[in-house]
Amino acid sequence: MPAPIIRIDNLRKTFGALTVLDGLSFDVAPGEKLALIGPSGSGKTTILRILMTLESISGGHIEVCGEQLYHMPKGAALVPADEAHLHRMRRHIGMVFQHFNLFPHKSVLDNITLAPMLTKGEPRAKAEARAMELLDMVGLADKARAMPAQLSGGQKQRAAIARALALQPRIMLFDEVTSALDPELVEEVLLVMKRLAAETDMTMLLVTHEMGFAHEFADRVLFFDRGQIVEQGPPDRIFTAPSEPRTQAFLRKIIAAGHRV
Amino acid sequence: MIDWQGYIGLILDGAAVTAELTVMGAALAVVAAFAAGLGRVSRYWPLRALATVYIEFFRGTSIFVQLFWVYFVLPFAGITLQPLQAGVLALGLNVGAYAAEVVRGAILAVPRDQIEACVALNLTRGQRMRNVILPQALPLMLPTFGNNAIELLKGTAVVSLISLKDMTFQAQVVRAQTGSTLIPFATILVLYFLFASLIGWAMRRLERRVTRGLDGVRA
């Protein structure tokens, strides 16, 4: 068993009086594909946002690629990380958002090349060549010069996936990436992600309401409720024979709502 | 019979001064607006404090008083300015204070998800501002900048107080010498309107340029 690439230890997150995550601990193995499922408000998205350093933490420790994410060593002690430390740690992690968050003033190609050119100092020619490969992979090679506003939702999300991949992070976070899409556009995004999961050894954390996709995609499924892991295991077991009543109730509700598992 | 040609020439000389003040004042105002507007959203409190003091002071006192201070009081501190320099300084800083709030407001109006995308792509704060936030904030600033520029144009009339011969000053001169109010003031009325129209036209062109490709992105 290789050392975990992510190690979450006793993580706590509160928003004012509301406790979202309460003493959460779990590890993720390198290359593992993890699906986080559970009712809204269960804290799944918050975990991704914390890993991307979009939220602060209220307590606990997170280790990413063998280093503390929110803490840094100072002498023998650990002190809260400064912006420089966070900046260094973010190299390991990429994120795809529910609402794509493409830069509306930049072409699809420029959306993808911006970060590699700025953060890695890649020359434009190299960044563009790589961007074209990625666009080819997500099926958008003909949209390189298009502006985001000219794309459909599914195309936007595929462009956003290409943008996140351009930095070659070791860990990729997908936050409800199909939730904002029209139903007929969901499939094209899921196809890209399936290929990605099959072809790369990237570690992936996926928050989703697409249970069928989670079933196919994940090596392990974590079912969350009220900021805690209620149940976890291989998708075959979680989706066909969940042992916890809360998991059973959640899956029943999802199936009743017309989602296939 | 009055030699109107000569008098109109005087007013046109004044129009050149007004144009000069407007262009140079606007240039200073843009610099001051971005410096103070960015200062207001800085994470360093001394910068925020400095920007706030500047903005509140220049918005909270009259341009008339500011101009007197710059021209008549600064010399006591050993700083003597030419009338044109004093006019540009007072007008530029005054309008820049208003425009700084426009800059700040436009920066804050850029959706939060854009900043989150920048964090996820590991851009530094400076890179986020230059490459993502300001390019999207600029189209939001321009309509109000156009208003500010026209306010600046009209504000230039106040410089006649420090002996600058702008077009309002020249109109007064012509009125005193000819006894006619209608002709000089009708002339500068038309000239101010033409200048303001020119500013409006230029700003609309600029707006079209910076919003290219953003069609349909925001209203």
What oligomeric state do these chains adopt?
Answer: heterodimer
- Main beta-sheet strand count, sense and barrel state of chain A: 6 strands, mixed
Domain tally of chain B: 1
- Rg of chain B, rounded, reads 21 Å
The total of helices of chain B stands at 8
Tell me the number of strands of chain A.
Answer: 12
For the largest beta-sheet of chain B, the strand count, sense and barrel status come to:
none
Determine the structural class of chain B based on helices, strands and strand pairing.
Answer: mainly alpha
Q: H/E series of chain A, N to C? A: EEEHEEEEHEHHHEHEHEEHH
| Strand line-up across the major sheet of chain A | 8-9-10-3-11-12
Find the count of extended strands of chain B (DSSP E, 2+ residues). 0
List keywords for this structure.
heterodimer, A: 261 residues, alpha/beta, four-stranded antiparallel β-sheet, 37% helix, B: 219 residues, mainly alpha, MetI-like fold, 8 helices, 79% helix
Task: Give a short summary of the structure.
The complex is a heterodimer of chains A (261) and B (219). Chain A is built from nine helices and twelve strands.
Notes on the protein architecture:
- The complex is a heterodimer of chains A (261) and B (219).
- With 261 residues, chain A is of the alpha/beta class.
- Chain A has helices at 44-51, 83-90, 108-119, 124-137, 153-165, 183-199, 211-217, 235-240, 245-256, and strands spanning 6-15, 18-28, 33-37, 59-64, 67-68, 71-74, 77-80, 93-96, 171-175, 203-207, 220-225, 228-233.
- Helix content of chain A is 37%, strand content 26%.
- The mean pLDDT of chain A is 93.
- Chain B is built from eight helices and no strands.
- Chain B has helices spanning 4-40, 45-60, 63-73, 83-109, 112-120, 125-155, 167-178, 182-210.
- The chains are: A alpha/beta (261), B mainly alpha (219).
- The interface between A and B is medium-sized, with 28 and 22 residues.
What topology does this entry show?
The complex is a heterodimer of chains A (261) and B (219).
Chain A: E1 6-15, E2 18-28, E3 33-37, H1 44-51, E4 59-64, E5 67-68, E6 71-74, E7 77-80, H2 83-90, E8 93-96, H3 108-119, H4 124-137, H5 153-165, E9 171-175, H6 183-199, E10 203-207, H7 211-217, E11 220-225, E12 228-233, H8 235-240, H9 245-256
Parallel strand pairs in A: 3-10, 3-11, 8-9, 9-10
Antiparallel strand pairs in A: 1-2, 1-4, 4-5, 6-7, 11-12
Helix pairs in contact in A: 3-4, 3-5, 4-5, 5-6
Chain B: H1 4-40, H2 45-60, H3 63-73, H4 83-109, H5 112-120, H6 125-155, H7 167-178, H8 182-210
